[in-house]
Amino acid sequence: MATTGIINGSQYTVMFDTDGGSPVVADNVTDLSVSISTDTRDTTTKNNGGYRAILPGLKSLSVNFTAYYANDATNGFDELMADFLTGTKQSVKIASIDWDASPSPTEVVGDMEIVFDAYITSLELSAGTEDNTSYTCTLECVSAITYQAHT
Fold first, then answer.
1. Is the bond into 103 cis (omega within 30 degrees of 0)?
2. Burial of 13 (0-12, 13-18, 19+ CB in 10 A)
3. Residue 76 in 3-state DSSP?
4. In whole angstroms, what is the distance from residue 40 CA to residue 86 CA?
5. pTM of the model
6. Residues 99-143: pLDDT tens digits?
């Protein structure tokens, strides 16, 4: 059943996969942002009375997320680094997860999800003194975007 009211940000996470299968939840995600935009193209003419005129152009979607680095993660920095180095396209899903579901976390039926293909365009590892090691990843969409309720 779809989540009602204001959704807790901890529910949404990023999932990815490279073999064309179903995307898998990224391990240890602490922060996630999705940015969707449309470039504009200027169509201003002398007939616009001094006002700018525009039309929509290219659409883009980028995802940035931060996660803790763990050597034993099954879908984390090591997998992303290997895919980054080979230029492997990712199947990506941004989805709402019920972390308390039994026997394991599951996607929330009825909550909205974003599905697309992307390339990893940035991967940063951060390891401060006496601090948790973390990484930040940027994924840039290279396909049509599907925005739908999870079924």
1. yes
2. buried
3. coil
4. 33
5. 0.90
6. 999 998 999 999 999 999 999 999 999 999 999 999 999 999 999
pLDDT of 19 reads: 67
Residues 6 or more apart whose CB falls under 8 angstroms from that of 19 comprise none
Percent of the chain with pLDDT over 70: 99
| % of the chain surpassing 90 pLDDT | 93
Q: Which residue has the tokens 């659409």?
A: 59
Helix (H) or strand (E) holding 83: helix 77-86
* Radius of gyration, alpha carbons of the chain: 19
Contacts of 148 (CB under 8 A, 6+ apart): 112, 113, 115
What tokens does 77 get? 């920095």
Strands (DSSP E) along the chain, which ranges? Answer: 12-17, 24-25, 29-42, 54-68, 90-98, 106-107, 112-126, 134-141, 146-149
Q: Is 47 exposed, middle or buried (0-12, 13-18, 19+ CB in 10 A)?
A: exposed
Nearest to 60 by CA among 145, 121, 137: 145
> Does residue 15 sit in helix, strand or coil?
strand
